[in-house]
Specification:
The complex is a heterodimer. Chain A is α/β, with parallel strands linked by helices. Chain A has helices at about 5-15, 65-70, 100-110, 125-135, 140-150, 155-160, 170-185, 200-215, 230-235, 250-255, 260-270, and strands at about 25-35, 40-50, 55-60, 80-90, 95, 110, 190-195, 220-225, 235-240, 245-250. Chain A has one domain: Rossmann fold (3-Layer(aba) Sandwich). Chain A is built from 11 helices and 10 strands. In chain A, the strands form 2 sheets. A 6-stranded mixed sheet of chain A has the order 6-7-8-3-9-10, sandwiched between helices. Chain A has a 4-stranded antiparallel sheet with strand order 2-1-4-5, sandwiched between helices. In chain A, helix 4 crosses helix 5 (about 140-150) and helix 4 packs parallel to helix 7. Chain B is mainly alpha-helical. Chain B has a single domain, classed as MetI-like (MetI-like fold). Chain B has 11 helices and no strands. Chain B has helices at about 5-35, 40-45, 60-90, 95-110, 110-125, 135-155, 160-170, 175-205, 205-210, 240-250, 260-290. The N and C termini of chain B lie far apart (about 50 Å). Classes of the chains: A alpha/beta, B mainly alpha. At the A-B interface, helix 3, helix 4 and helix 7 of A face helix 7 and helix 8 of B.
């Protein structure tokens, strides 16, 4: 249930982010601050993420966009000294709360990393690794889920004859799609992509981009990217980060054609960063 | 001197060092094998040793060496790998962890004779067991634990962070990630450490003199009851290992064929370590290939 107060807050934020409330929201970030020890990496940002859309986070290195992304599924917990204040609301719960079951959260909010990181196991086991842990033991069910997730990741045709070969025998682009497939297999609602194609060649990159556009039918996607063309090609909304603040957040088309802040324009046109 | 000359000199120095190391190794092997191989026969390996007469073998000593190695590894590997996991994944950086690490390093550098004396106090006198295989194995565990902890810790730390994060990001718990991602990836390095430790155990004499003893009861290899004093499997019996046997026949042996026995034993010891090494590596690479699906 959404209370009137929250409803109002939501509208407020939608106005703040200079957009109309079209889609439902999947995440509401309120005044989020992230610290590494004494150093503040994110300075109280607020942003609403829409359901079934692709949201791109852009900005120069060290601007806090990856830090923000990693806080959404609590990967920053692994970094000694990192802490977050404020709220990230997901299904009426504050993700940052101590009471959150981080393991359960990460099943719903999956993440794909910059460098393809398949496990040194077979292609099949890369996908069943987490499924088995989640309690699925039946071979027929596992087989089905492996096929389904590989098809969704547009990798099935390329690997169906060698499912039991090492995942490390795949090319970088295939490895990254395998990492996306194993995340899909967990049936998350949100997928966080941290520069997923920066380590790939242009052809693999194009495949991954097509895949992302395809995936937003079912998932809400947040992607960090340094590639301006990529952000403009695949995202619906774009947030521009600078030194731990969100400078501008709007529809991608507007950001790239007619940004309202001068800094945004300067960054997009490559004058700094 | 220009940098090209310096480079050439450095290359020369390192090649010389490599040649020195290799020639020492080859010389040692050659000496041991040439002197020892001629004394090795099936009879030598399968007859019990003799205290006074010539013609004794090393049957029991050979068995004891392998058995103590096995028992030691049974105790030391779970403890050592567990300690390595703790140090790599659970210990919070700070004073206490630093202290634990210093203790491990000090333990690793203790002379084995000191550990033997410690074992005499702890596992022989305090427990009232007398000289036993278990006492020997525990002393050797003390001796090898630091190495295994250190090697396991380093091996686990060397697993790329991305792999660990990839597993955690899929909603998998820390322990399951350690079990199914970190340990299999660290396996080859841990195995290398275990083999090095096993070599040390196999060749160790000083730590066993006062813990496993210098004698072996008359063993009956048909007796598999681990509680019978005549059973080779009994862990509460004294056991002289091959390395201890070499030391004891040379220092206090009454047999006329001291030289033959000790040369033959030395050759068997060296060959055993070699075979053990190759076997462990071969089995290890089989397991690793199966786990990682690589050919």
């Amino acid at each position: 249930m959404v209370t009137t107060f929250e409803e109002k807050e939501r509208v407020n934020q939608a106005v703040r982010s200079n957009s109309q409330l079209q889609n439902d929201l999947i995440l509401e970030v309120n005044n989020l601050e992230i610290f590494y020890g004494e150093k503040r990496a994110v300075n109280g940002i607020s942003i609403d993420i829409e359901k079934n859309s692709v949201t791109a986070l852009i900005g120069p290195s060290g601007c806090g966009k990856s830090t923000f992304l990693r806080s959404i599924n609590r990967m920053n917990d692994l970094i000694p000294g990192a802490r977050a204040e404020g709220e990230i609301i997901y299904e009426n719960l504050n993700i940052l709360s101590e009471q959150i079951d981080v393991v359960a959260l990460r099943k719903e909010i999956g993440m794909v990393f910059q460098k393809p990181n398949p496990f040194p196991k077979s292609i099949y086991e890369n996908i069943t690794h987490a499924l088995k842990f989640a309690g699925i033991k039946k071979k027929s069910e596992l087989d089905e889920m492996v096929e389904e997730s590989l098809k969704k990741a547009a990798l099935w045709e390329e690997v169906k004859d060698r499912l039991h070969k090492s995942a490390l025998s795949l090319s970088g682009g295939q490895q990254q799609r395998l990492c996306i497939a194993r995340t899909i297999a967990m049936k998350p609602t949100v997928m966080l992509l941290d520069e997923p194609s920066s380590a790939l060649d242009p052809i693999s990159n194009a495949k991954v981009e097509d895949l992302i556009v395809d995936l937003k039918k079912e998932y809400s996607i947040i992607i960090v990217t340094h590639n301006m063309q990529q952000a403009s090609r695949i995202s619906d909304k774009t947030a521009f980060f600078l030194s731990g603040d969100i400078i501008e957040y709007d529809y991608t088309e507007k950001i790239f054609t007619n940004p309202s802040v001068k800094k945004t324009e300067e960054y997009i046109s490559g004058r700094f960063g | 001197m220009n940098s090209k000359t310096a480079d050439r000199i450095a290359t020369g120095v390192f090649i010389t060092i490599a040649i020195i190391i290799i020639s020492i190794l080859v010389g040692l092997f050659y000496y041991i094998l040439v002197n020892g191989l001629k004394h090795i026969s099936l009879e030598f390996l399968t007859t019990p040793s003799s205290n006074v007469r010539a013609g004794g073998g090393i049957r029991d000593q050979l068995f004891n060496s392998f058995y103590i190695l096995f028992i030691t590894m049974l105790i030391a590997l779970p403890l050592g790998i567990g300690g390595g996991i703790y140090m790599a994944e659970y210990a919070k950086p700070g004073k206490i962890t630093d202290m634990v690490r210093s203790c491990i390093e000090v333990l690793a550098s203790l002379p084995s004779i000191v550990i033997g004396m410690f074992g005499l106090l702890m596992f022989v006198n305090l427990t009232g067991w007398g000289y036993t295989i278990l006492g020997g194995a525990l002393a050797l565990t003390v001796f090898n634990l630091p190495v295994i902890v250190r090697v396991s810790e380093d091996a686990i730390r060397a697993v790329p962070r991305e792999l660990k994060e990839g597993s955690l990001a899929l909603g998998i718990t820390k322990w399951h990630t350690i079990k199914t991602v970190l340990l299999p990836s660290a396996f080859p390095s841990i195995l290398t450490g275990a083999i090095l430790a096993a070599g040390r155990v196999f060749g160790e004499a000083a730590a066993l003199l006062f813990t496993a003893g210098l004698s072996t009861p008359r063993l009956d290899y048909a007796n598999w009851n681990p509680f019978s004093p005549q059973s080779p499997l009994n862990i509460f019996r004294p056991a002289e290992t091959l390395a201890v046997h070499i030391w004891s026949v040379n220092t206090q042996g009454l047999i006329p064929d001291v030289e033959e026995v000790s040369n033959g034993s030395a050759a068997v010891l060296v060959l055993s370590v070699l075979v053990f090494n190759l076997l462990a590596r071969w089995i290890g690479s089989m397991i690793h290939k199966k786990a990682t699906a690589s050919k």
